[in-house]
Amino acid sequence: MSDLNDLLLLVQSRTPLIAIESLEEKRAIDLFGDLARKLRQPLMLWSVTGGLRTIRQTPREEPHKAEPAELLRHIRGSDRPSVFLLLDFHPYLEDPVNVRLIREIAQSHDKVPNHLVLLSPRIEIPQDLAGHTARFNLSLPDEPKLLALIRRVAMEWMQQNAGRKVVADKKAIGLLARNLVGLTASDAERLARKAIYDDGAITSSDLKMVQEAKYQLISQAGVLSFECDTAGMGDVGGLKRLKEWLTHRKAVFHGGGAAYGLEAPKGVMLLGVQGCGKSLAAKAIAGLWSVPLLRLDFSALFNKFVGETERNLRESLDTSEIMAPCVLWVDEIEKGLAGGEGDGGVSRRILGTLLTWMSEKSKPVFVVATSNDVTQLPPELLRKGRFDEIFFVDLPDLETRGLIFGIQLSRRNMTPQNFDLVALARHSDGFSGAEIEQAVVASIYTALARGVDPTTELLVEEIRKTRPLSVVMAEKIAWLRNWAAERTVPAN
C-alpha cells in the first residue's frame, strides 16, 4: 500500500494531529499536497521564517501568522477544514500555551475537521497531546525501487559523459542496491551518485564507502561503532571447526537457503581463554561473508538516567537491522549482563530486551557474542536456541601456534620460511595468540636495539622471559576448560 493510501486511512480515522519525523521535507510536502487534493481541502504551510501560506501562493500574497501562538489561535478560529503542515514546530511544544491551543483544536475536530501535521527531523510529543496524536513514517524505498534509482543515476552519468557506459555487472549493482536498503530515497540517490560519478564504475570499494556512509547517516547512539578494519579467515590461525561451520552457512546467510525453507543463521557465542582470537574471529566472519561489522560497546551502553540504557540498546539494535545484512559483534557481553542487585534491575531489563530481539528479529543480522568469563553469563543466554552454536576458543595447539607465528611474522614484513616455526611452536606451549604476537614484537625491539635481524633464537629468548596466562591463572583456565568440555563445541 502506498504512503498516500496509508495517510488517507489515518485521516479518515479522524486523527486531528499527525507527527512525522523525517529529513525528507520536500517529499512530505508533495505527499500532503496529494492528500489535500484527495480531501478537496487547502494545504497550508507554516514555518517560523515564512509564516503561514498556501502552497500555491502568488507573489503578491503576504505570509502571515509567523508567531506560533498567533498561528494556533488562527487555526482554532478557522471554520474551513484545511490541512496545516507545520515545519520544525517541535521547539514550541515546550510552551504550555501552545500545547493548550493544540488541545483545543484537536477537541474541536468533530466540528471543524482540521488536520495539524508536525514535520521535523525529531519530535517529542507532550503527554497532554499523546492521545490526539498518531505518528506516521514515510516509507523507505525497497530493493526494486533502489535498482531503478541506480539505473537512473547511471543513465544520467552516461548522458553527461558522451554515452560511455558505467562499468558494473549485475551482481555489483544488486549488492549496491542491497546496501542502500534502509535509507531515504534522497540519501540513497546521493550515495549512488557518489559511487558512480567517482570513476564511472561500481566496485567493491564503492560498497565499502556506501556501508560506512550509511552507518553515519542512521546511527544515533554512540554505543554502536562501524568497524572499518575487518579481517579475513587467513588472518586467523586455527579455529578449523569454526571456519568450516561459517563457510557452510555463508550462502544461506545471503538468502541461498530459501528454496529449502532455511532461515538466515542467528549467531554464535564465542567463549574461551583471553587472547586466543575471539575478537579477531568476529572481524573475520564479517570479512568472510563480505558484510559490514558493527561493534556494540556494552561499557558505553549504561546511562545514569532511568530508561536511557534500554533506549540506547533499542536504538543500536534498530540500527543493526537497517544495516542488515551485517555482523553485530557484542564484545565481552558479560560486562553488560552481570549488574546484580545494585543496578536497579537495569541488567535484567537489558537481557530481556536483547533476548526478545534475538528471538523476533527478521533481518539478517548475525550476532557474534564474545565472553572471557562464563560464570558471569545468565543461563537464559546460554540455553539452546539463543545462538546457533556455542564455540569454545581454547589455547592454540602445536600446529596452530606455528600458523600464528607465520601470520605475525608476515604482518611485520618478515619471511616465515626464515624461521624455525616448529621450534617456536614447541617453545611456546601454553601461549595464547596475543602472547605469541607480543613475543614477536618484543623480539623485533631486541633485534633493533642490538643492530641485528630478528631470528628464531631471539624469539625463543623472548618466549622464555614470558609467563603466559595459562601459568599465571592455571587453576581458572583448567576450570574453564573442564566446564566447556561437555557444553560447547571446540572451535579448533
TrEMBL record:
PANTHER family: YCF46 PROTEIN. Pfam families: AAA, AAA_lid_3. GO terms for molecular function: ATP binding; ATP hydrolysis activity. Transmembrane segments: none annotated. Belongs to the AAA ATPase family. Highly divergent. InterPro entries: AAA+_ATPase, AAA_domain_protein, AAA_lid_3, ATPase_AAA_core, P-loop_NTPase. It comes from the Bacteria. It comes from Sulfidibacter corallicola. This is Uncharacterized AAA domain-containing protein ycf46. Gene3D superfamilies: 1.10.8.60, P-loop containing nucleotide triphosphate hydrolases. Residues 264-397 form the AAA+ ATPase domain. Keywords: ATP-binding, Nucleotide-binding.
